[in-house]
Design brief:
- The strands form 3 sheets. Strands 5-6-7-8-9 form a 5-stranded antiparallel sheet, sandwiched between helices. The chain has a 4-stranded antiparallel sheet with strand order 1-2-3-4. The chain has a two-stranded antiparallel ribbon with strand order 10-11.
- α1 runs antiparallel to α3, α2 runs antiparallel to α3 and α20 packs antiparallel against α21.
- It is 51% helix and 11% strand.
- The longest helix has 67 residues.
- It starts with a helix and ends with a strand.
- By secondary structure, it is α+β, with helices and mostly antiparallel strands.
- The chain contains 21 helices and 11 strands.
Length: 685
């Protein structure tokens, strides 16, 4: 049913009237009944006319009319439904009429709702149109603002523009007018117009730069040609170097024959650049001494040059693990936890190895002694301790303890045994690593002994524990003394070794020029000569006086036992050879065994005088002679004096009175032990 206008209500009224007639006919009532006076007069449905409007409006007036119409319809529906509820169960014809009215009111509500929806849609469309117009205008505004901003940016860039000619360093204005041709400078116009003046200056600068560019290209071409010539010459020189090396290598035998070793010197000087400071000083001074005073001394650098280069490129060796910041110690501890746990002994050995690590290069002295032996003295630098150690090797056909490398240079200078570090700071370094002072001797024995004289010639100067006169701080002051003392020690040891070997064969060397010291005929013979251990020395001195035992107190000396025999009487002598022989003469301690018992210096004054002849007056034996043969001369004197001792103790009938002028002299009745060559007899001292 389409609602709208008066025709719709007419058709609806006709339809409702037909329905009412059919309902009354079914109920058997007359079509119309008189209205009772108690009924209220209801409004007719025809009275509800639709609200006529020319069209949807958005104004508030139409909206208010719709709300009031909606409210009236709802209230009428409420009233009609209440009446229907009251008339329910009765056969009143007004129930159908009320239902029809309710239906009409519901349709009215639908019409109002549809009109409201149409009006809302129309309002929404108008709103969207207005919003679209506003968005378009806002977009246009944004475009205009963007264009304004772009124009402002362009204006700013134009204002901030800096021309490239401002960075060009032009020639001064006066110089420009002096050097530039008038076709370019045009003074008549450029002096009045700054713009034309700047253009002219730039034009002149361009011409100048073109000219300089041409010169640069020409110079570059010349440089390239010269560079090619240099490369050709360098290639020639690089090819020439191997040929020169081959020639120098071929001439080495000629250099050795002529004593001019250019190639060896060049190689040694190249190695010297990688020496540590102490060894470098030692090498320079030793080379200078060799060239100036002693050509027989051979000075060389030993070691691997590549390893020395790697060693020089490393950081200084750090042995002290206790130093450093807390963060460094924590980092080291964290790294240690990640590593494999090592034993305590292995950790101690690693610390000791780091402490006693030497530089890869060393300096070697090679000394040849009379063609009998060659001694090599190697000087090493212990980097962590800052000292120089000495290691000796001997190449000789003669073997024996006297040429033992570990004791050959012992006490080369007084008190210098090499068993203590000359650097006082080393004691603190070892104590920090948990090592005592006695451990230094054991560790140093692997890399050599740090003699004090080695520090002198290496330019190292350390304070001593006791105030003594300091050695020169420069190596040249001690180099000559050390080398001469070293050669004297080697020659003395070789001579002493020869004497010991002859005594081992029970032969007393008969030295040339010693005929005036001893008679031609000596009856006492050497029947035994052997070296003693420390236990055997203690056993020999057992029961002797304290004065006698105190003379044998050094464990570094060489002890021998000599047994001499004259008829049935034996003389046993303890011979103590000091390591500083012959500066310190050998010591003789004598005991005589015979039928009357054993006589020593403790109970026999003649034996004491005999020991004095050997130990005190030994300088007479080497007067104007080499002191290296002192031991053999003392043995010869011992033979002679033992003959005199036995002759003087014989009975008067058995004595040979022609041997002495007086039998004894002095209160102690000294025997005639002094031999006078010219008369050929003995006299008391």
């Amino acid at each position: 049913l389409k609602l709208g206008g008066g025709s719709g209500y007419a058709r609806l009224g006709a339809t409702m009237a037909a329905r009412r007639k059919r309902a009354l006919s079914r109920a058997g009532k007359p079509e119309s009944q008189p209205e009772t006076p108690t009924e209220k007069k209801r409004p007719k449905i025809d009275d509800l006319q639709p609200m006529q409007t020319d069209g949807p409006e958005i104004g508030g007036v139409v909206h208010g009319l719709q709300v009031s119409a909606f409210t009236d319809a709802c209230s009428r529906i409420g009233e009609l439904l209440g009446r229907v509820n009251d008339l329910k169960g009765s056969r009143d014809e007004n129930i159908d009429e009320c239902k029809g009215d309710v239906s009409l009111l519901v349709m009215k509500l639908k019409q109002l709702n549809r009109e409201a929806q149409l009006r809302c849609k129309e309002a929404r469309d108008k709103t969207n149109d207005a919003r679209q117009r506003i968005d378009d205008q806002h977009l246009q505004l944004q475009n205009m603002l963007y264009q304004v901003m772009h124009l402002q940016k362009e204006i700013h860039e134009c204002l901030e523009f800096k021309s490239g000619h401002e960075d060009i360093e032009l020639v001064p204005l006066e110089q420009f007018y002096e050097e530039a041709p008038k076709a370019i400078s045009n003074p008549a116009e450029t002096r009045r117009d700054p713009h034309k003046r700047m253009l002219a200056r730039l034009h002149w600068e361009l011409e100048q730069r073109k000219r300089l560019t041409c010169q640069l290209e020409a110079s570059t071409a010349d440089k390239q040609k010269i560079q090619e010539d240099i490369e050709l010459k360098q290639q020639f020189l690089s090819d020439l170097q191997p040929q020169l090396d081959a020639i120098m290598k071929a001439t080495i035998p000629v250099q050795e024959q002529m004593g001019v070793l250019f190639e060896r010197r060049r190689t040694q000087h190249a190695l010297a650049l990688y020496l540590p400071q102490p060894l470098y000083v030692l090498f320079v001074q030793a080379s200078a001494y060799q060239e100036a005073l002693d050509q027989t001394l051979n000075v060389s650098i030993e070691g691997d040059a590549e390893e020395a280069k790697v060693f020089a490129s490393r950081a200084p060796l750090q042995v002290d693990e206790g130093r450093g910041s807390d963060s460094d110690r924590e980092e080291r501890q964290s790294q240690k936890r990640k590593k494999r746990r090592r034993t305590v002994d292995q950790a101690i050995l690693d610390k000791q190895d780091n402490l006693m690590k030497t530089h890869p290069l060393s300096v070697r002295f090679t000394v040849k002694c009379n063609g009998q032996a060659t001694v090599s003295v190697d000087f090493h630098n212990i980097v962590a301790l800052g000292i120089v150690t000495v290691k000796v090797s001997v190449d000789s056909e003669q073997l024996g303890d006297l040429l033992d490398p570990s004791s050959l240079l012992n006490k080369l200078f007084p008190g210098d045994t090499g068993h203590e570090s000359p650097n006082p700071a080393n004691a603190f370094q070892m104590r920090r690593l948990g090592l005592d002072a006695d451990a230094f001797d054991t560790l140093a024995g692997k890399v050599g002994l740090p003699y004090k004289w080695a520090q002198w010639i290496a330019g190292l100067d350390f304070l001593s524990d006791t105030p003594v006169e300091s050695a020169p701080s420069f190596a040249a002051g001690k180099m000559e003394l050390v080398v001469e003392t070293l050669k004297q020690r080697l020659e003395s040891r070789l001579t002493l070794q020869q004497q010991i070997q002859q005594l081992d064969s029970l032969v007393v060397p008969n030295l040339p020029g010693s005929e005036s010291l001893f008679p031609h005929k000596v009856k006492t013979k050497v029947v035994s000569w052997n070296q003693l251990t420390q236990e055997e020395v203690d056993r020999f001195l057992d029961g002797r006086s304290e004065r006698t035992t105190s003379m044998v107190k050094s464990t570094t000396d060489y002890c021998y036992q000599a047994i001499l025999q004259h008829d049935n009487v034996k003389l046993t002598a303890l011979v103590v050879v000091n390591v500083c022989y012959p500066k310190i003469p050998p010591l003789f301690i004598i005991s005589v065994s015979g039928e009357a018992g054993t006589c020593t210096s403790d109970n026999d004054l003649n034996i004491k005088a005999l020991e004095a002849e050997l130990n005190v007056y030994c300088d007479e034996l080497v007067h104007n002679r080499s002191p290296d043969s002192l031991l053999s001369l003392q043995i010869r004197r011992l033979q002679m004096c033992f003959d005199v001792y036995l002759q003087c103790n014989q009975a008067e009938g058995d004595r040979n009175e022609r041997l002495w002028s007086r039998l004894s002299c002095g209160k102690d009745r000294r025997l005639p032990y002094v031999y006078q060559c010219d008369p050929g007899f003995f006299r008391p001292r």
